[in-house]
């Protein structure tokens, strides 16, 4: 029996990340090789022609799982009936702009998209915010879509999680699929804390802790952390463009694990609405280690937090509280 198509919204769909993301969704990378999809693509009016070009290419690619494409600059049409929303569109920070200016632009974007999703999306729509500042954009969306359950609104920190896995795999010269249970704590910003204290590597003699195998705490507590924190800037320096392929791929990973579940014994990092677990601030969107089952995420509890980690969890939490205050000041 063929499955009913799932409607997936991508905002900012004519941009770099959108262009990398939509073929992945259409190919089954996000929801599985037997799940048909209908793509809803939204962008701003100046990008309408480019958006239509993306639609033409999707038709030309003849994806068997792709059962329809809606390409529009109308937010209501874009949000109508969607089961999954990937919010890639946002206002990027430009040279000379103050943080408050960027925040103000994004607050107005996410406020209007929140009400469109709330009124027109399918019940139980799952939302992933990719556009920066992702955690706080997700918080604004939650505030202005009160009927969407808080647990259904998330921010992308899977890109940072995957970057951390990649750095460990390169350092140890092991397959990235054999590394698991790194954690990204906090904000998708340079204050995020990539934590390997509970991470393991599959070896011929069983799973071993990353710290035991790396045997270099100075690197793990220093260069490793800053490399993951600043990887986005390093890619901009190298490509003269921001991360697109890796961001799109990690957005697929985030949704796939959320919808289809995480493997037994493995957790992933997701920016979710904080309940104050691990004594971090409640009421912000904070990245935690989570497991997923039956379409629901659960924060992994009971992990030991050492003194260095405690400071880093608090630092990124303080930044999120500052961002929240800044965002709320843009509303007044």
UniProtKB/TrEMBL annotation:
Residue ranges constituting the Lactate/malate dehydrogenase C-terminal domain according to the UniProt record: 157-326
Look up the EC number in the record and give it.
1.1.1.37
**GO MF annotations in UniProt:** L-malate dehydrogenase (NAD+) activity
Q: What PROSITE patterns has UniProt attached to this entry? A: MDH (PS00068)
Give the catalytic activity.
(S)-malate + NAD(+) = oxaloacetate + NADH + H(+)
Annotated TM spans: none
Which enzyme type, at the first EC level?
oxidoreductase
Which keywords accompany this UniProt record? Answer: NAD, Oxidoreductase, Tricarboxylic acid cycle
Q: Lactate/malate dehydrogenase N-terminal domain location, by residue?
A: 6-153
Catalytic site: 188
| Positions bound to NAD(+) | 12-18, 43, 106, 130-132
UniProt superkingdom: Eukaryota
Q: What does the record list as GO biological process?
A: malate metabolic process; tricarboxylic acid cycle
So where does substrate get bound?
93, 99, 132, 163
The record, for InterPro entries, names: L-lactate/malate_DH, Lactate/malate_DH_C, Lactate/malate_DH_N, Lactate_DH/Glyco_Ohase_4_C, Malate_DH_AS, Malate_DH_NAD-dep_euk, Malate_DH_type2, NAD(P)-bd_dom_sf
**Member of which family?**
Belongs to the LDH/MDH superfamily. MDH type 2 family.
- Protein name from the UniProt record: Malate dehydrogenase
The protein's organism comes out as Corchorus olitorius
């Amino acid at each position: 029996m063929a499955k009913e198509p799932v409607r997936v919204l991508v905002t900012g769909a004519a941009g770099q990340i959108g262009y990398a993301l939509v073929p992945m969704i259409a190919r089954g990378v996000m929801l599985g090789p037997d799940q048909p999809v209908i793509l809803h693509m939204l962008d701003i009016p100046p990008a309408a022609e480019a958006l239509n070009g993306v639609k033409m290419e999707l038709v030309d690619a003849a994806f068997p799982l792709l059962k329809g494409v809606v390409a529009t600059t109308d937010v209501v049409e874009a949000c109508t009936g969607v089961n999954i929303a990937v919010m890639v569109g946002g206002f990027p920070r430009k040279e000379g702009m103050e943080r408050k200016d960027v925040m103000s632009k994004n607050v107005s974007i996410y406020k209007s998209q929140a009400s469109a999703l709330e009124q027109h999306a399918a019940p139980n729509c799952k939302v992933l915010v990719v556009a920066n500042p992702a955690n706080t954009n997700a918080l604004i969306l939650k505030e202005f879509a009160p009927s969407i359950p808080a647990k259904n609104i998330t921010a992308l920190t899977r890109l940072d999680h995957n970057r951390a896995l990649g750095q460990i795999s390169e350092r140890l010269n092991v397959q990235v699929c054999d590394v698991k249970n790194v954690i990204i704590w906090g904000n998708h910003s340079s204050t995020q804390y990539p934590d390997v204290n509970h991470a393991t590597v599959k070896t011929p003699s069983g799973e071993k802790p990353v710290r035991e195998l790396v045997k270099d705490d100075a690197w793990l507590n220093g260069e490793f952390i800053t490399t993951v924190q600043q990887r986005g800037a390093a890619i901009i320096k190298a490509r003269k463009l921001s991360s697109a392929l890796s961001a799109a791929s990690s957005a697929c990973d985030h949704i796939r694990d959320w919808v289809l579940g995480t493997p037994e014994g493995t957790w992933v990092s997701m920016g979710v609405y904080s309940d104050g677990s691990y004594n971090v601030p409640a009421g912000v969107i904070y990245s935690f280690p989570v497991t997923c089952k039956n379409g629901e995420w659960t924060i992994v509890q009971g992990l030991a937090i050492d003194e260095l980690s405690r400071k880093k969890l608090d630092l990124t939490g303080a930044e999120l509280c500052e961002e929240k205050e800044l965002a709320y000041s843009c509303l007044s």
